[in-house]
């Protein structure tokens, strides 16, 4: 995983976990990699992964079964979508809107590009 400088690493790892859930790679009630396993895989400090897991636990995306490990919650997809939607609407969308305005991009062009993107990346 390549980390960006503009966002805390634990938040980028949270995005990574959320994406795995949304893409169905990690399913409800499945065990997620241990803190140590994910830290080794992503080449980060285990404390960073623990911080990520604490955030995701607070968002009801994962839960800790003491002595067993962390698991995806039953309704994780709904919680992930809610969490990610707020982040997108508050952080990313204003930048997109600014660029749309400054570059005078029409909504028709955006719609066309969006449909092409979905078709090429998600076979929808």
Automatic annotation (TrEMBL):
Pfam families: GntR
Keyword terms of this UniProt record: DNA-binding, Transcription, Transcription regulation
Location of the HTH gntR-type domain: 7-75
InterPro entries: Tscrpt_reg_HTH_GntR (IPR000524), WH-like_DNA-bd_sf (IPR036388), WH_DNA-bd_sf (IPR036390)
Keyword Transcription applies: yes
A GO molecular function held by the record: DNA-binding transcription factor activity
SMART domains reported in the protein's UniProt record: HTH_GNTR
Domain of life: Bacteria
PROSITE patterns hit by this protein: HTH_GNTR (PS50949)
Key word Transcription regulation present: yes
Entry protein name: DNA-binding transcriptional regulator YhcF (GntR family)
Organism, scientific name: Pedobacter zeae
């Amino acid at each position: 995983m390549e980390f960006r400088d503009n966002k805390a690493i634990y938040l980028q790892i949270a995005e990574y976990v959320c994406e795995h859930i949304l893409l169905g790679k990690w399913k409800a009630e499945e065990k997620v990699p241990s803190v140590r396993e994910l830290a080794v895989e992503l080449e980060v400090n285990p404390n960073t992964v623990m911080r990520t897991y604490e955030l995701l636990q607070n968002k009801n995306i994962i839960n800790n079964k003491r002595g067993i490990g962390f698991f995806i919650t039953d309704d994780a997809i709904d919680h992930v979508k809610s969490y990610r939607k707020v982040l997108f609407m508050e952080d990313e969308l204003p930048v997109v809107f600014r660029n749309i305005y400054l570059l005078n991009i029409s909504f028709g062009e955006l719609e066309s590009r969006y449909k092409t993107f979905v078709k090429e990346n998600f076979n929808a």
